[in-house]
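Local shape tokens

___
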Amino acid sequence: MEEIASVYARSLFEVAKEHGKLDQVREELGQFADALDRTRELQMFFFSPYFSTAEKQDGLDKAIEGERIVINFLKLLIENHRMPVIFRVRREFDRLWRQENKLLPVTVTSAIELDESTVKQIGDRIAEQTGRKVELAANVDPEILGGLVVRVGNSILDASIRNRLEQLRKQVARAG
């Protein structure tokens, strides 16, 4: 099933890119997927075999306005009875979009809230070192006690006090 979602996402991505509407298509696809995710009635309508393809497409026309690329794509999903893959299509489209824009997801986690300029400095340094644009997020997790945990893509730099204490505990246990 994941393969189907990837094929649909890549097709939508290529059409959006060809028309210079990657950002707009990403935004509208995300809005539709979010609305579908939040509303059980919409899921029942679009995912149910009890409603015909024509009813679903008509409902779609009444429910949303926007970029024709997105509307035509959603109608294609309905026509091919593939609407349930919409969430995976969105994830894959977002991945392709980040890759196209050379975005690197970075999450900075600290025990207390950091001011914006500090978080931005961390993001700027990572962007400088990697040569990529950084998609920056900041979280607060009091359990790390102090220091920082920085996730850059799939890599994690754990400079938290909790991690240091855990390393120290292991060293003491090995010595004893």
